[in-house]
Amino acid sequence: MKLLVASIPRAGRYLLSLALGALVLQLSPEARAALGDDVSAVAADQVRWGAKVKVMRRPAYAVHELSLPTGAKVRELANDAGRVFAVSWSGGWRPNLRSLMGAHYDRFIAGTRGRRATRGIVRIELPGMTVVMGGHLRTFFGTAVLTDLLPAGVGLEDLR
Fold first, then answer.
1. What backbone phi and psi angles, to 5 degrees, belong to 106?
2. Under 8 Å CB-to-CB from 136, ≥6 apart: which residues?
3. Which of 69, 85, 146, 150 has the maximal Cβ count within 10 Å?
4. Alpha carbons 132 and 123: distance in angstroms, whole number
């Protein structure tokens, strides 16, 4: 094995190590607190986005508000069992919905197929999931909620 590595030119070894490093990064799972995930991943989101976190306690859930350096805010709402049942965003950018919705993103996309594109606020209701979003030119907002995980006594209107 040592002879094989020594026979590769120095530039080739460098490129090989870069390729292997990129492969490892691609295969490693992304830590995030997406819909339905464990709330412990909020800390990973904080580091990844360079955000400041403020936790606000409500009677049946906690709101983890991440303030990003860009001025945008992402709120991850977790029930008492520690599961993220809603995410919301506001700010001058449209977030990566795949990252925020996690495993539920594909179901969301399937629910948008066949719908006409409209201006204004869009509300998509799927079994067990509701997404409301809108915005324009540096003012985007939205909320995605797993209605099956909503704490008892909490309605969608309470999450505003």
1. -65, -35
2. none
3. 85
4. 4
Residues contacting 79, CB < 8 A, separation 6+: 60, 61, 85, 149, 150, 151
Tally: H helices and E strands in the chain = 5, 7
Closest CA to 33 of 72, 64, 67: 64
Say how far apart CA 27 and CA 86 lie, in whole Å. Answer: 27
pLDDT digits 0-9 by tens, 61-98:
999 999 999 889 999 999 999 999 999 999 988 788 99
Write b or e for each residue in 46-85: b if 16 or more Cβ atoms lie within 10 A of its Cβ, otherwise e: beebebeeeeeeeeebbbbbbbbeeebbbbbbbbeeebbb
DSSP notation for 71-121: S-EEEEEEETTSBEEEEEEEESS---HHHHHGGGHHHHHHHHTTPPP-SS-
Distance CA 136, CA 13 (A): 48
**pTM (two decimals):** 0.73
**Who's near 151: CB < 8 A, 6+ residues apart?**
60, 61, 79, 80, 85
Amino acid at 81: A
Residue 23 has which token pair?
A: 């492969």
